[in-house]
Structures are given as structure tokens and as C-alpha cells.
């Protein structure tokens, strides 16, 4: 399958990050986004593909386009900052695509952290923001130690309950490196991510038995069954505190919606999605500078990597090592297109074409 006869986008083909990014940006711009916003958003989606996080990258492009078309997302939101303190504020994202809202929050956090040493930006009225590690990488590239949290639609039940109240509620962190290779940590507070379960359901593959429960509260390896049940939190009983902690920080500080009120994207729905995030930027200069922070991280990394392994074929390694290796390879050799990515590009392009047909030349796309 190729995109409208474009052999460069055939399943299994290799494409450069730059080429793929330009194509995604063109789709977003044609959907009504400003070109600069489209380019920045595209870069973060491509970052996910480079990192091997297929479930949080271009696979979401159709939902962004359909959201703009229906009005649940705004292509050109009027985001505004609220608050009286320089080092802490709230961003009302005005139903922006989550990637855009996250970038705006990061920009604000970096400017304020450079003045105050650290800054916290809570975000409300946002949407799914893709791979949290993309924001961690961006903050680290600006000389910041970054911490990113987000709530999500309810898929996890509190301990001892059947009704889901919390989402996969990811946590990510980024640590700057003087050599340009930041340490990135990114994990869902559930045993598996909702996006990967959706991808497994589409691909027809099984999921690990400890990722989800069926409607009866029993473990299942069937991805389609898992989507009708609940997710399992990391770490058993104590692990259920993690999604709660993220929920409290994101919702209580931003004034946003709890996970039970966050909407899953639905075709044609114009209801705002209501996701909340939290971004923390700490200027490395406040802690000795990037060189000093980087050397301490290198020390810890060496201690972990030089630990005697249980299995010599699988030695200990720092979190994010696999993603970093995949990014290097993708940027050197190109990204191999999966059927999921090609289908997402085709669906998004077709949706944009339909939007153009339904709007007169005098009208603009939804803002």
C-alpha cells in the first residue's frame, strides 16, 4: 500500500526524518494550522517514530485532523497564561492539540526557569500530547532538567474497585548532556500503554498478561478484550498510587478535568477532550551547570551499566538507551514505514481533502 501512488510511502520503504516530517507538517498545515506550529508538531511526532514509539507518533495524526474538522480541537487556539507568580503559572490551552499545548508550556517554562532557576507550568483544556519523552528531550536541549506529567482518559480502577477513574498517566524526565545525548526517562504508570494495546488490537498480536484485565477483572492477553476492560497499574498495590499522584498534580494544579471526565477521541465529536498536563523545568545552571549535571549522570550510568548482570546477554542499561539507539539509526538510515504509519498518513490526507471540499474558498478551516 502506498499513499496515493507515492512509492516513497509504501509499506516497508525507508524515508528520511526530514521527508516524513515535511509530509506530516503539510497535512497539519492543510488542516488549518499555522505553518510554524505544524512544523513543530510534526517534529515531535517524527521523534516518536524515530524512537520506536509507534503508538504515540504518526498513528495519532488522523485523530488530530478529525478533531480539528469536528471542532473538538482548534487548529489555531488562543492559548493564555494565568497566574501572578513568575516561577509558576497555568496555561489554558483552549482545546489545542496536546502537542501544541505541550510545546507552548515548555517554551514558557524555559523562559521562566532561566530567570528563576526553575518553573512549573500546569496545563488544562488540552488533548493527547504524544510521546512525553519528546518534551523531555526538548527541555534537556535547552539546558533544563525536565519533568513532564499528564493525565488521560480513565482506564485504571483504584485498588479494590472495578470502575476506571485514572488514565495511563505518563511520567517523563529529561537530563541535559554536554555532548548532546540527554538521558530520557518515559513511562506510563500502568504496566503497559493504552496506545500499544490499541496497536496490538489493530495488528492482531497478543499483549503481556500483566497489562490489562477483562470486564470480570481477570488478566487477559487479548488486546481487543483489554480495550473493553481496565489497565493494570505498575507495581501492584503500591503502584496504584502512581497514577493517583499524577492525577492530583495535573488536575489540582491546573483546575482541569479528572481522568473520569477526559474524553477519548471519537469520530465527529466536537466535545473538548479536557486533558491536563504538568511541566517542570529546572535550569541546570542552578545546580552547577550542564557539565556538572552531565558528569554526575555519567557516574550513575556507569555504576548501573558495570553492575554484574544476572544474564550476560542482557546486561543492565540506563532507561532510554534503546530509544536513543533507534533514533541514531533512524537519523542515519531512515525510518522504515509500517502499515500503521502509511494507513495513518493516507487517512489523515483523505480527511484533509474532505475538509477542503466542504469549505468554500472564502471560508477558513476551524480555528
CATH homologous superfamily grouping of the largest domain: Malate/L-lactate/L-sulpholactate dehydrogenase, NADPH binding domain
> Unreliable stretches, pLDDT < 50, 5 or more residues?
none
Q: CATH topology of the largest domain, anyone?
A: Ribosomal Protein S8, Chain: A, domain 1
Beta-strand level of the residues, as a percent range? 5-15%
Which structural category do the helix and sheet elements fall into? alpha+beta
Strand order of the largest sheet: 2-3-4-11-5-6-7
**Helix-strand pattern:** EHHHEEHEHEEEHEEHEHHEHHEH
For the report, how would you describe the main beta sheet? Answer: 7 strands, mixed
Query: What's the β-strand tally?
Result: 12
- Separation of termini? 33 Å
Report helical residue fraction: 40-55%
Q: CATH architecture of the largest domain, please?
A: 2-Layer Sandwich
Q: C-alpha Rg, in Å?
A: 20 Å
The average pLDDT is: 92
User: What is the global morphology?
Assistant: globular
Structural description of this entry:
With 367 residues, the chain is α+β, with helices and mostly antiparallel strands. The protein folds into 2 domains: 7-190 and 233-297 and 320-358, Malate/L-lactate/L-sulpholactate dehydrogenase, NADPH binding domain (Ribosomal Protein S8, Chain: A, domain 1), CATH 3.30.1370; 202-232, no CATH class. The protein is built from 12 helices and 12 strands. The strands form 3 sheets. It has a 7-stranded mixed beta sheet with strand order 2-3-4-11-5-6-7, sandwiched between helices. Strand 8 and strand 9 form a beta hairpin. Helix 1 packs parallel to helix 12 (339-358).
Amino acid at each position: 500500500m502506498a499513499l496515493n501512488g507515492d512509492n516513497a510511502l509504501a509499506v516497508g520503504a525507508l524515508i528520511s526524518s526530514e521527508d516524513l516530517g515535511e509530509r506530516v507538517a503539510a497535512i497539519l498545515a492543510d488542516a488549518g494550522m499555522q505553518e510554524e506550529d505544524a512544523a513543530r508538531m510534526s517534529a515531535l511526532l517524527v521523534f516518536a517514530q524515530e524512537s520506536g514509539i509507534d503508538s504515540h507518533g504518526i498513528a495519532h495524526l488522523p485523530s488530530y485532523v478529525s478533531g480539528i474538522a469536528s471542532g473538538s480541537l482548534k487548529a489555531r487556539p488562543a492559548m493564555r497564561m494565568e497566574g501572578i507568580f513568575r516561577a509558576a503559572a497555568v496555561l489554558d490551552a483552549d482545546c489545542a492539540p496536546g502537542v501544541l499545548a505541550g510545546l507552548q508550556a515548555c517554551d514558557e517554562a524555559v523562559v521562566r526557569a532561566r530567570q528563576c532557576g526553575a518553573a512549573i507550568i500546569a496545563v488544562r483544556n488540552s488533548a493527547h500530547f504524544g510521546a512525553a519523552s519528546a518534551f523531555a528531550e526538548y527541555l534537556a536541549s535547552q539546558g533544563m532538567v525536565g519533568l513532564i506529567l499528564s493525565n488521560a482518559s480513565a482506564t485504571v480502577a483504584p485498588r479494590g474497585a472495578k470502575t476506571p477513574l485514572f488514565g495511563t498517566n505518563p511520567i517523563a524526565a529529561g537530563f541535559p548532556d554536554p555532548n548532546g545525548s540527554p538521558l530520557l526517562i518515559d513511562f506510563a504508570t500502568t504496566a503497559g500503554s493504552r496506545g500499544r494495546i490499541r496497536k496490538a488490537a489493530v495488528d492482531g498480536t497478543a499483549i503481556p498478561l500483566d497489562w490489562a484485565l477483562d470486564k470480570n477483572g481477570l488478566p487477559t492477553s487479548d488486546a481487543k478484550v483489554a480495550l473493553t476492560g481496565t489497565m493494570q497499574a505498575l507495581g501492584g498495590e503500591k503502584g496504584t498510587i502512581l497514577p493517583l499522584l499524577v492525577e492530583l498534580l495535573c488536575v489540582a494544579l491546573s483546575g482541569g478535568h479528572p481522568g473520569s471526565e477526559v474524553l477519548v477521541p471519537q469520530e465527529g465529536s466536537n466535545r473538548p477532550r479536557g486533558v491536563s498536563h504538568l511541566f517542570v523545568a529546572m535550569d541546570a545552571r542552578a545546580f552547577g551547570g550542564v557539565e556538572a549535571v552531565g558528569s554526575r549522570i555519567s557516574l550513575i550510568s556507569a555504576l548501573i551499566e558495570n553492575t554484574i548482570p544476572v544474564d550476560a546477554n542482557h546486561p543492565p542499561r540506563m532507561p532510554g538507551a534503546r530509544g536513543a539507539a533507534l533514533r541514531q539509526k533512524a537519523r542515519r538510515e531512515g525510518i522504515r514505514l509500517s502499515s500503521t504509519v502509511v494507513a495513518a498518513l493516507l487517512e489523515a490526507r483523505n480527511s484533509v481533502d474532505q475538509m477542503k471540499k466542504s469549505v468554500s474558498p472564502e471560508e477558513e478551516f476551524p480555528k
